[in-house]
Amino acid sequence: MKKLTVIICTYNRSDLLQECLESIVNQSMDDRNFDVVVVDNNSSDRTKEVVDSMAGKYHNVHYLKEENQGLSHARNAGWRLAKTEWVNYLDDDAISHNDYVEKILETIQQYDYPIFGGVYHQWFKFGRPDWFPETEGTNKYLLSKTGVLSENKFASGGNITFKREILESLNGFNTSLGMSGDKVSYGEEIELQIRARAVGIQVGFNPDIEIDHLIRKDKLKLDWWLDSYYAKGVDAAETFRKKNRTWLNLAKGIGFATAMAPVFFIKLLFASSFKKGTFVLKLYGPLYYLAGKSGFRKPKWYTSE
Q1: Cα–Cα distance for residue pair 287/290, rounded to 1 Å
Q2: Which listed site, 11, 107, 193, 208, has its alpha carbon 20 to 30 Å from 118?
Q3: Orientation of helix 47-57 relative to helix 14-25, angle to 10°
Q4: What are the CA-CA distances from residue 162 to residues 227, 247, 261, 294 (Å)?
Q5: What pLDDT score does 273 carry?
Q6: Helix-strand-coil percent breakdown of the chain, rounded to 5?
Q7: What is the pLDDT of residue 298?
Q8: Which residues contact 93 (CB under 8 A, 6 or more apart)?
């Protein structure tokens, strides 16, 4: 009897979806042990054609259309359709490692984590800018060995596994958060983990559950990263449900810039690996986050590259 359903939510990424599906159907684990459900969130490209072609070759691949726009709607549709005890979410712009499903099932068997995540590595399909930091686009530094994540750390929504009954008891993902069409938004998986922890549910992590996550072309530009910091700040205000302390955040931003600007400037002058883009990202990224969290208008303090 199958124990796991891998859910891939997608919107207008048929070319990347093809690569994602090819990775998940070619696993070390026999495909009789898991299902794959692709939730199409109103794509207008070749998404259905790609899934139908794969489903014709692999009996465990299935297609589901979700007309309510938004990643959280798609994720909820996926777990509600799933008939297995466990569900895993895999991003459509990621390639799962060959033992991805095997490691998930091993974690289920060996540990008592109702929710657990894994590692996503940087995947530079379109080249790598010289300023791109090792710490961006990956969570490989989150935890070095299998264990429980602390309260201030969260599993990534692009590589996360849930006991299905947990999703049902918590009514799934908050549909006011998360990506919606072309709108960039975050926080739905974090908000869900916060609610889970509030009722005593632990969140585990296994660094052996690995995917390569695409650094898309738009993510190779500094303005995308700064915009994403701002969006994360906006979503954090709702996700963590904390009182908006605008002036405290402003003071933090000024203090951070005052302390770190000279340090980053010296690195820019003397450290060959510290590029102009690194300077912009390291200094302005946190300021953009605080601006979003405080409700300030998106600043334009940078030069796009």
Answers
A1: 5
A2: 11
A3: 20
A4: 30, 38, 42, 32
A5: 76
A6: 45, 20, 40
A7: 67
A8: 13, 16, 20, 213, 214, 216
Sign for the CA dihedral angle at 125, 130, 135, 141 comes to positive
Residue 147 sits at φ, ψ, to 5 deg, of 180, -175
Q: Are 268 and 212 in contact (CB under 8 A)?
A: no
Q: At what angle do helices 188-198 and 71-81 cross, to 10 degrees?
A: 60
How distant is the alpha carbon of residue 196 from its chain centre? 18
What contacts 259, CB < 8 A, 6 or more positions away? none
Cα gap 284→294, rounded to integer Å: 15
DSSP 183: B
Give the span between the Cα atoms of 171 and 43, in whole angstroms.
Answer: 25
- Coil/strand/helix, residue 232: helix
Segment-wise mean pLDDT, segments of 10 residues, the chain, 305 residues:
95 96 96 96 97 97 96 97 97 98 98 97 93 88 95 95 97 87 76 96 98 91 83 72 64 79 81 80 82 72 45
| Distance separating alpha carbons of residues 36 and 61, to the nearest angstrom | 5
- The two tokens of residue 197 are 């922890």
pLDDT digits over 226-247, tens only?
Answer: 888 887 777 677 666 555 566 6
The identity of residue 109, as a single letter, is Q
Q: Rounded to the nearest 5°, which phi and psi values hold at 256?
A: -65, -50
* Among 190, 188, 187, residue whose Cα is nearest residue 149: 190
